Amino acid sequence: MKNVTDSFVSLGHWPSAGSFGFNTDILATNPINLSVVLGVLIFFGKGVLSDLLDNRKQRILSTIRNSEELRRGAIEQLERARDRLRKVEMEADEYRMNGYSEIEREKVNLINATSYSLEQFENYKNETLHFEQQRAINQVRQQVFEQALRGALGTLNNCLNSELHFRTISTNIGILGSMEEITD
C-alpha cells in the first residue's frame, strides 16, 4: 500500500499536472499529435474515403466502358467509310474509263462526219465546176453557132436569088415528106 500512497504523493510534487499548458518540445509533441490525428481520420474517415474511392473507381470504369464503345463505333464508322470510299473510287474509275471511251467514240464520229462532209463539199465543188464548164462550153457553142448562122444567112442572102431560094425550099419540103413516109 505504500506504493499507492507514494504515487499520490509523487503527484503532489508536480505542480503543473493538474493544469493545461503548452509544450514547446516539438520532437516530443509532433508524433503524438500526428498519431492522434491519423487515428481519428482513419476511424471516422475510413468509410467516407472508401466511398469516395469506390465512386471514383466506378466513374473511371464507366468512362473506360464508354470509351471502348465509342472506339468500337468509330472503328465501325471508319470501316463503313472505307467501304464507301472504295465503292466511290471504283465508280469514279468506271466513269472515268467510260468517259474516256465515250470521248474517243465522239472524236472518231466527229472525224468521220467531218471527213464525209469534206468529201460531199469536194463532190459538190467538182459537180459545180463541171456544170459551169458545160454551161460555158454551151454558151460558147451557142455564140459560135449563132455567129456561123448569121454568117451563113448573110452569105445566103447575098448569094441567093429568089429562084434558088424557091428550089431550096422545095428540096427541103421533099426531104421532110420522105422522112414522114419512112416514119409511117
Overview in brief:
The chain has 184 residues and is mainly alpha-helical. The protein has 3 helices and no strands.
What does this structure look like?
The chain is mostly helical. It has a domain at 32-153. The chain has helices spanning 2-12, 26-159, 162-183. The longest helix has 134 residues, at 26-159. The protein starts with a helix and ends with a helix. The model is unreliable at 3-15 (pLDDT under 50). It has 3 helices and no strands.
Secondary structure elements and pairings:
Elements: H1 2-12, H2 26-159, H3 162-183
Keywords: ATP synthesis, CF(0), Chloroplast, Coiled coil, Hydrogen ion transport, Ion transport, Membrane, Plastid, Thylakoid, Transmembrane, Transmembrane helix, Transport
Membrane topology: Single-pass membrane protein
Protein name: ATP synthase subunit b, chloroplastic
Brief descriptors of the model:
184 residues
| Helical segment count | 3
Instruction: Note the overall shape.
Output: rod-shaped
Tell me the number of strands. 0
Helical fraction = over 70%
- What oligomeric state is this? single chain
Distance between the termini: 197 Å
Largest sheet: none
- Estimated share of beta-strand residues: under 5%
Overall average residue pLDDT: 82
Low-confidence stretches: 3-15
SSE ordering: HHH
- Which structural class fits the helix and strand makeup? mainly alpha
Rg to the nearest angstrom? Answer: 69 Å
Pfam families: ATP-synt_B
Subcellular location: Membrane; Plastid, Chloroplast thylakoid membrane
Protein name: ATP synthase subunit b, chloroplastic
Transmembrane segments: 32-49
